[in-house]
Amino acid sequence: MKKTAVILLAAVVFVVAALSGCAKDSGNSESKTSAESKKIKIVTTIFPEYDWVTQILGSKADQAEVTMLLDNGVDLHSYQPTTEDIAKVKSCDLFIYVGGESDEWVSKALKDSTNKKMKVINLLDVLGDSVKEEESKEGMMPEKEEEEDGSDEPEYDEHVWLSLKNAKVLTKAVAKEIEALDPENANTYGKNEAEYLRQLSALDEKYKKAVRRSAGKTLVVGDRFPFRYMVDDYGLEYYAAFAGCSAETEASFKTISFLAKKVDKLKLKNIATIEGSDRKIARTIIKNTGKKSQHIVTLDSMQSTTSEDVEKGKTYLGVMTANLGVLKKALQREE
Asked: Which InterPro entries match (predicted)?
């Protein structure tokens, strides 16, 4: 009888302990879920937007859940959102996107949003009148669709992030919205913004200095040219095979010949391309120059940046600093 009572007592103690453990685990789980639900959910389309957000968050990065939709190397012009991407946009607290022709899918996603308090930043809207129309330069391959439909409707150059001046304006807009979403840490975000703007301005001055010192003021690009905002900032000239938003990949002999003659006339030592290029057009241009000895340099437009690149430490400022070195080479002329 005593033995039975001891067994029963042990069983009761075991059950109570088990229930207590479950309650404790449940409490931890609920606490974790609550903490996650309090995080600001920020969704960005492209890498520069993502990096600006992380720079503003700084040490408070744990206060937000930040998503970069274009994280696998697909550029803005080819991107098609998945069902999961749309769901993230619909439920986030802050959505940041470029706002050009490539983002036509956004309007429906925002219309069906489940978070009616969502804040939205459209880069082109923020920049207003400083947004430029896509430019067709002498010698550049025309877009096939332009030839076919003859449309006069303007197409805006979406690559606004490639201007440090624009980056400063856009960073301020991003900081303002993050501070509004998390007023408790607004002071920290404000300090991070001020420091980041200082770094952007310092790099901008380096670009100005480099251009002033350069004998050459024109570059030739055997590729698409998404850097119009950059060259306009510093009064530079350029010639390219295609416009920045072009989907064309084959250049005519007329375009190749035109660009080769420009290289000869300008006595350029280097021809530029952009990241991801197979360099085929640039090499063909070189073959058609007089010296045939030019080198190929690569500018990074940050359209193919992946999440893996981010994990390895890639930043907007880092890329723009590297682009300055490439720009110097692209402007070099033979003595």
From this structure: Bact_metal-bind_prot9, ZnuA-like
Domains held by the chain: number: 2
- Domain containing 86 equals 40-123+133-141+157-202
The number of angstroms, rounded, from the C-alpha of 150 to the middle of its chain's C-alpha atoms is: 31
* Mean of the per-residue pLDDT values of the chain: 88
Q: pLDDT tens, 301-322?
A: 999 899 999 999 999 999 999 9
- From residue 160, how far is each of 81, 132, 155, 215 by CA, in Å? 21, 9, 13, 27
What digits encode the pLDDT tens for the residues 41-97?
999 999 999 999 999 999 999 999 999 999 888 878 778 899 999 999 999 999 999
Q: Are residues 179 and 317 in the same domain?
A: no
Same domain, 61 and 196: yes
